[in-house]
UniProtKB/TrEMBL annotation:
Pathway involvement of the protein, from the record: Amino-acid biosynthesis; L-serine biosynthesis; L-serine from 3-phospho-D-glycerate: step 2/3; Cofactor biosynthesis; pyridoxine 5'-phosphate biosynthesis; pyridoxine 5'-phosphate from D-erythrose 4-phosphate: step 3/5
The encoding gene: serC
Catalytic activity: 4-(phosphooxy)-L-threonine + 2-oxoglutarate = (R)-3-hydroxy-2-oxo-4-phosphooxybutanoate + L-glutamate; O-phospho-L-serine + 2-oxoglutarate = 3-phosphooxypyruvate + L-glutamate
Record bears the keyword DNA repair: no
Cofactor: pyridoxal 5'-phosphate
Protein name: Phosphoserine aminotransferase
UniProt remark on cofactor binding: Binds 1 pyridoxal phosphate per subunit.
Predominant location: cytoplasm
Cellular location(s): Cytoplasm
Summary of subunit composition and partner proteins: Homodimer.
Family as reported in the entry's similarity comment: Belongs to the class-V pyridoxal-phosphate-dependent aminotransferase family. SerC subfamily.
This protein's record includes keyword Amino-acid biosynthesis: yes
Length: 357
């Protein structure tokens, strides 16, 4: 039996996606080979590759002014690629909302990039999204839209004329986005879009004309991959195949508007359980910064937290242990987690509070 998967990533994929892949695993569409067993230059693979890009365009409603790249190295490599390609003679500005932006900032420092941290919520252990004001003439303005560990999320994007660069690893494809001022939207696929192994980078084309820092390796230039349609070297073909199936699944859910409505109900159900627990559960994020994707919380008596996680597992609910930086409990409720799955967790939370409260 499949468990209900509340892991932060990699995590569950929609069952129908896995079942579909299973039917084609050894024989893709009657071709006599698996999709992972043929050249990335073949027509068969190209259809998958460009099909996945088309679906991403359709979901976000983005046109020709953006290029979609399929890269490797995870979100982590973007911490370096972004400043190497985008930093010019000005300042690269960052908002620090937790471990993932902190790592990006440290990488900019490591590369000797002229950068500045314009806002931070570190003083309160990243429990909210701070007021963020970027300079309009910054080389770029960097944020992480959803902070996977702390369960905080921007409710609206900061206004700036500088190209906004967004690490959306954990809230990619969870709701529609207005792309005005977005220069780059990127993330690893393994949280909301597919398996690990492929990083999706949506980049505004004018940014491809910037001059990368001297000695930037060919493989780390966005232009290399844009010019080659992400076929410069061998892409992770099987991961992109599963990404394509997952994007089709999102379209089948009514696209990003459909998904957003379901995600809102899921998050509300868990936050209600926390808020109505009479103080038994306490959410980490301040209310106006609450994430719809990751919900981090504590139990009043922290000794009960490992018992909660173990009991949940006995009830076939996986991945509820909080991140090592924060401890406690975290429920990651990405697109593939259904409203019914969430209701099962909420019932468990209510029963647990009654039993131990
Ligand atoms: C998981 C995560 C990362 C790290 O992703 P990798 O693909 O492992 O490099 C970066 N940023 C955010 C917001 C994440 O959730």
């Amino acid at each position: 039996m499949r468990k209900i998967n509340f892991s932060a990533g990699p995590t569950g994929l929609p069952l129908s996606v896995l079942e579909h892949a299973k039917t084609e695993f050894t024989d893709y569409k009657g071709e006599g080979y698996s999709i992972m067993e043929i050249s990335h230059r073949s027509k068969t693979y190209e259809e998958v590759h460009f099909g996945a890009m088309d679906k991403i365009r359709k979901l976000y409603g983005i046109g020709d002014e953006y290029e979609i790249l399929f890269l490797q190295g995870g979100a982590h490599l973007q911490f370096a690629m972004i400043p190497l390609n985008l930093s010019q003679n000005g300042v690269s500005e960052y908002a620090n909302t937790g471990v993932w932006t902190d790592k990006a900032i440290k990488e900019a420092a490591n590369l000797g990039i002229n950068h500045k941290v314009v806002a931070s919520s570190e003083a309160s252990n990243f429990d909210h999204i701070p007021d963020v004001k970027f300079s309009d003439d910054a080389d770029f303005a960097y944020i992480c839209s959803n902070n996977t560990i702390y369960g905080t999320q921007y409710k609206s994007l900061p206004k700036t004329k500088a190209p906004l660069v967004i690490d959306a690893s954990s809230d990619f494809f969870s709701e529609p986005l207005d792309f005005t001022n977005i220069g780059i939207l990127y993330g690893g696929a393994q949280k909301n879009a597919g398996p690990s192994g492929v990083t999706i980078v949506i980049i505004r084309k004018d940014l491809l004309e910037r001059t990368p820092k001297p000695h930037t390796p060919t493989m780390l230039k966005f232009k290399t991959h844009a010019d080659a349609k992400s076929l410069y070297n061998t892409p992770p073909t099987f991961a992109i195949y599963l990404l394509d199936l997952t994007m089709q699944w999102v379209l089948d859910q009514g696209g990003l508007n459909g998904i957003k409505a379901i995600n809102a109900q899921k998050a509300a159900a868990i936050y209600d359980a926390i808020d109505n627990s009479g103080g038994f559960y306490k959410g980490h994020a301040q209310k106006d910064s609450r994430s719809v994707m990751n919900i981090s919380f504590n139990i009043k008596d922290s000794n009960l937290e490992p018992i909660f996680v173990a009991d949940a597992l006995k009830n076939d609910m996986l991945g509820l242990k909080g991140h090592r930086h924060l401890g406690g409990i975290r429920a990651s409720i990405y697109n593939a987690v259904s409203l019914n799955d969430v209701k099962t967790l909420v019932n468990f939370m209510n029963d647990f509070a009654k039993k131990h409260g």
